[in-house]
Design goal:
The complex is a heterodimer of chains A (328) and B (290). Helices cover 73% and strands 0% of the residues of chain A. In chain A, helix 5 crosses helix 11. In chain B, helix 7 packs antiparallel against helix 9 and helix 9 packs antiparallel against helix 11. Classes of the chains: A mainly alpha (328), B mainly alpha (290).
Amino acid sequence: MRDLAVFLAGKAARLLLLLVAVSSLSFILVNFSPIDPVQAYVGADMMRVSPEQREQIAEYWGLNDPPLQRFFRWASAVLHGDFGTSMIYRRSVLSVIGDRFAASLVLMGLAWLLSGTMGFLLGTLAGRRRGSWLDRLVKGYSLTLASTPVFWLALLLLYVFAVWLKWAPVGMMVPAGVEASQVSWTQRLDHLVLPTVTLSIIGVSNVALHTREKLIDVLNSDYVAFARARGESERSILRRHALRNIALPAVTLQFAQFSELFGGSVLAEQVFSYPGLGQATVQAGLRSDVPLLLGIVIFITLFVFMGNLTADLLYRLIDPRMRLGGAA
Amino acid sequence: MNAEALLERPWAGRLLGGEANRRKRTLILVSLLAAFLAFIVVGGALLGQSGLSTNVELRNLAPSLRYPFGTDWLGRNMLTRTLKGLTLSMGIGLLASSISACIAVLMGLAAATMPRAVDAFISWLIDLFLSMPHLVMLILVAFILGGGAKGVIIAVAVTHWPSLARVVRAEVLQLRQADYVRFAKHAGRSRLWIATRHMLPHLAPQVIVGYILLFPHAILHEASITFLGFGLSPHKPAIGVILSESMRYLSTGRWWLAFFPGLSLLALVFAFYSLGSNLRLLADPWSAHE
């Protein structure tokens, strides 16, 4: 128990340092950007905005103060839980992130579960009979997917299922022109299917390859050789020896993949115009919404860290060897 | 993978068509892949600019023998655009991953040869860079640099070094314990001398393989951020630009605008992956038996 406390304290210190570094680095670098935030804010109305109005906008957002002062103002606000106001959504950054992340979480969560289960299943099937056609198929599939551009796959699915077969809507989270309260669950689900499928197909590759390797290692181990010599059937070896040993690494790997999951989600959300956090990231970048961009960067760092922490904790809780000072 | 594990698996060699053949087959595969990549570069250069000019009579043609990839709404030849885009991607990928590999080697060497504090700092830096999704960091860096080719190259270069740096660091930490390195140290050689004369030659195969394996990532990420609108300008014949344009025409049924360019990108990335992993087999004598 004391070990766990020390471990968590160490992780907390790391997280603190990480967040301080990420936020200050991003803030400093963003200030070097050649993009004029006032210009970005005004956008297409640039002809109609007088220099005086520009000055007022800059004053309102506090863009004229020296960078250091702005950093401290922003940092102290962040410490008070206030990430500022998003320039494009005209709402507090936290509420934008909250709404958007809820939408992304549904998408990423479903894809995470689906790709995890499918990947584990395929990896097990492949690793069980190394060299069989099934093994080659799974391996080829996984290796090809590792080089597939997510957004291209999304475009293909969009074309086949939405444009050609007309089975799924073309995009968005809900049908256009319908009030939020009127949207039914099935409609929400309809709009969720294609992005989820895209992310799941891509996500399968890593888990499948990893599980396959692990299973091959386990099946070649001494204890499995002994079990075979004892006369245990292949099925019981798989159930009693192999699956127990490969399940945990697969789950841990899934938790350590939040970073790639979100990366894929950014691209998928863009193609399907799914209003999640990924799309908000792209919008914030394209339209120079600095407060929102910084907020998202910090939030996503936290999200990825939590995934990795869960992976570490799972290892410690289930594998006693990790508790003996092995935890990094 | 250790030696014992390999000795226990004679079937692994049989599976791949004989152990003696393995090396030869890898070599043939590597040359084929290199030829394919050369074909793209030469093809892209030979095709010239004619396919890129607007031609109203040839608008929106579906793929045919004369235009295998079809034409777009301005009558431009999609095959030419795709090949030009792939060449551009390779150029950017080459530059970005070269810079990235240099950073990785320097960081890895520094971490493993300099005092402990430097090592701790660099390890922390590696963790810092790995703690954020690549794509978010790419968007951030490209945003800071204001997009364009320069932005993409720098963004990809500064985000892709950590994984290779980790490999180099681990390798150098092991090398430091090698007899000849310890002897050189006792013989009074400087750290720089040992690093350049003893360590770099030993690291070379791994670094080269790691460098080639950086390529596919660099190319995919360049295409991704260009697709999102942070990368190359829409006037460049980049794959990301082609695909993001095609989004507007998908609902009209012009599938070829997205299908072939994306498939070619996949083929290019896949070629680099297999080139890298096959070279790794050649460079690493133990796994070469597998």
